[in-house]
Amino acid sequence: MRLHDLKDDEVEDVRILVVWGLGGAGKSQLVLNYIREYRRDYAAVFWIEAGSKESIERDYIQIYRFLYGRQMDTGPRMVKVEDTVPMVKRWFHGREGRWLVVLDSADTIDNDRDKSYIDLEYFMPDAPGVHVIITSRSSTAKEMTTLEAVEVADMEPAEAVALFRRGAKLQEEGQEIRTEVAQIVKELGYLALAITLVGSYISVIPRLSSDIRKYLPEYRERRKELLHQRPQQHIHRYGESVLSTWEASFDAITHQHPAASRLLSVLAFMNFDDIFISLFDRKATHITEPLEALSSSAQTWWLYIFPETDGNSYELESAFQTLQTYSLIQWRSDQRSYSMHKLVHAWGQDRLEATRQEQLSSLTLELLADATTDYQSDSSYRLRLVPHLMASFSVYSQTYNSIGETTRDRLTTIKRIGDFLYTTGRWTEAYNTRVFYFQGMRKFLGAEHPDTLGSMNNLAEVIRHQGKYEEAEEMHRQILALKETVLGKEHPHTLGSMNNLASVLDSQGKYKEAEEMHRQALALRKTVLGKEHPDTLGSMNNLAEVMRHQGKYEEAEEIHRQALALRETVLGKGAS
To answer: Where is the DUF7779 domain (predicted)?
Structure first.
């Protein structure tokens, strides 16, 4: 690979190599081969899944932890991605040796107006001694390097034959077999992904592995059916050879291991990378209990995968193994999880009608919402969960836009996900889910229903955390006015909105107005809730803070002392 050819140059500078070409052509495999051959030339290799903003951020945070030897808090104290990226890039400066950073599957780099657009240059290290390899389906990536880009197109016939023989586990060496193999890889267009899938397929189908001459007639017949049945955009997107091999594998799995085929349909609505089995296995550990003991959402997705049996962790592992045998998923030992090729992942969705996509994305949302309640204190688990949540939510919101229907249960699930993202400090993702939830509640219940106002308040709080203070202030003023009308000025929820508005005023430096509103909220809470109520003590603390911001330290100290004394009386001295 050309990057390694230049490694001994005297010029010390960051070097960027772009590997681009059609999906399924083998770009990532080419980079992996390079790493296997030249790993010793680098102090470390960092692989970043660049297929989505969430996966890049997840991997950057993991690199930050590795380089700095730190764990990271969640919630307000969490180290932000916008901090970790420059810290990781800065770490490389002044370091001896050579380092390799791979940005894999960086495909959404063309249109900066697209929601999925990734500003890849922001994430690229710029220190001397760092080599960067970018793999992409977009030819735009070539503009990011002064080196000659590596285009990965069709495989050489000899390489394609070797790849097929490995996948199919062929032992025979006769001329007839060699001729048949050459014809198969030619018909597959010398495309690495299709060849890998076909090889795996043949290896597990006895009637084909015993006589590979039977494969091409079957393949050609299936391709004819696909050309009649599949929309032309799907044929154009994937190519006839890839679609045909996928459908053949899927049909075989459906007959051999039906649960595995249903599992694949669920995986298509998660993120394609870092599919860790504990997402599912949590529920498998409880299967010794009656199925009715599981939550209703857990029953829904578990019964979808295992409708005939109660299922267990062994059956789940068997389903994963079947998918791996057919090369539809791959095990990644470095992160101890499975991954899917992006095209396989997209095909898993595209093969379904919109209503079926809505059903399965809803099912997956429920599975992932259940997962948010586990390992709440494990920041690593929470970070790994975010790309899956957003992938599933993205598909569900798209199908909602086309179908135009949702349910209260679905909205409740999305609220749970939004709350998880909020407490994890993922403000952008929390904003997207809370906008959806607020709009849904307003449609179901009306603009003035207390639950709608509550969802509006939660949305405003996310906006405040994003630093959009003017927008948050305007929304909080609307909420307060509506709650005063609907609930009354002394209702606890109204007082909560008053407190939130005062806080956003404080964040903008509007201290006098914030102080006045905090004083009103405190006085009303003392009257309505009592002076020892936790919300009242919270108002005392907030008032003291806005006094401190104005330099009124003595008054702030006095209020803090009063609040502390009351907390010790109510909660005890050891309480935090």
So the answer is: 254-355
3-state helix, strand, coil in the chain (%, to 5): 65, 5, 30
Same domain, 65 and 102: yes
Closest by Cα among 278, 394, 393 to 335? 278
285: pLDDT strictly greater than 50: no
What is the domain range of residue 179? 157-256
- Sequence letter at residue 161: V
Q: Give the tokens for residue 313.
A: 């962790």
3-class SS string, 133-187: EEEECCHHHHHHCCCCCEEECCCCHHHHHHHHHHHHCCCCCCHHHHHHHHHHHHH
pTM: 0.76
- Do both 98 and 167 map to the same domain? no
Residues forming a β-bridge with 16: 132
Cα–Cα distance for residue pair 463/472, rounded to 1 Å: 6
In sequence order, the β-bridge partners of residue 48 are 103
What angle separates helix 215-229 from helix 175-187, to the nearest 10 degrees? 10
Check which CATH number belongs to the domain holding 109 and give it. Answer: 3.40.50.300
Farthest-apart Cα atoms in the chain, separation: 95
Domain count, the chain: 3
Same domain as 295, residue 250: no
Q: Give percent of the chain with pLDDT exceeding 90.
A: 42
Residue 379, CA distances (Å) to 152, 382, 383, 535, 566 in order: 38, 5, 6, 29, 34
Contact 276, 337 (CB under 8 A): yes
Last residue in a domain, options 256, 290, 312: 256
Q: Over 80: is that where the pLDDT of 245 sits?
A: no
Helix (H), strand (E) at residue 363 = helix 354-371
Q: Is a pLDDT exceeding 90 seen at residue 309?
A: no
Question: Lowest-pLDDT range, 142-146, 182-186, 421-425?
Answer: 142-146
What radius of gyration do the chain's Cα atoms show? 28
Would 430 be classed as within a structural domain? Answer: no
Helix count and strand count (H, E) for the chain: 27, 7
Q: CB under 8 Å to 44, separation ≥6 — which residues?
A: 99, 100
The amino acid that residue 266 corresponds to is V
CA distance 519 to 539: 8
Domain C-terminal end among 204, 239, 256: 256
